[in-house]
Write a structure and sequence with these properties.
6-stranded mixed beta sheet, alpha+beta
């Protein structure tokens, strides 16, 4: 699990995973690193409606297959660092109320902000549709 700082290596690995997911034909609606201060960890959050409907085992297997296509992503990025989120998840709805990107890959750092009274400690946003 990623614990401490979000390094450039992890940011790059997350972008390469998003590219691999896009190349595999998945409709990635959101992709962003999100820091949760209570456990002190970063998670790469992905919203892929097509995978959510398949159940967690099949969904994470598909993500792992894309991750395996990125030889230089390991050991910095593993499946343990990834969380699949539903389109209606609170954190996703909150971020979308403040930021929307195009379908490309952005690099927006969103640090120490408040949205609707909720503190967002840190996030690195690739895509929010």
């Amino acid at each position: 699990m990623v614990t401490q700082a979000l390094t450039q290596e992890l940011i790059d690995a997350g972008e390469k995973l998003l590219e691999a997911l896009d190349a595999s034909g998945l409709n990635v609606r959101a992709a962003f690193w999100f820091f949760s201060p209570e456990p002190g960890v970063w998670k790469l959050m992905l919203s892929i409606p097509r995978l959510v409907g398949q159940g967690p085992k099949k969904a994470y297997k598909r993500i792992q297959a894309c991750l395996a296509k990125i030889p230089d992503a390991a050991p910095s990025l593993s499946l343990d660092d990834v969380a699949l989120v539903e389109a209606g998840s609170p954190v996703l709805k909150l971020l979308r109320s403040a930021i929307q990107t195009g379908s490309g890959i952005s690099g927006i750092r969103f640090t120490n902000n408040v949205i609707n009274g909720v503190v967002i400690h840190d996030a690195h946003i690739y895509r929010l549709l």
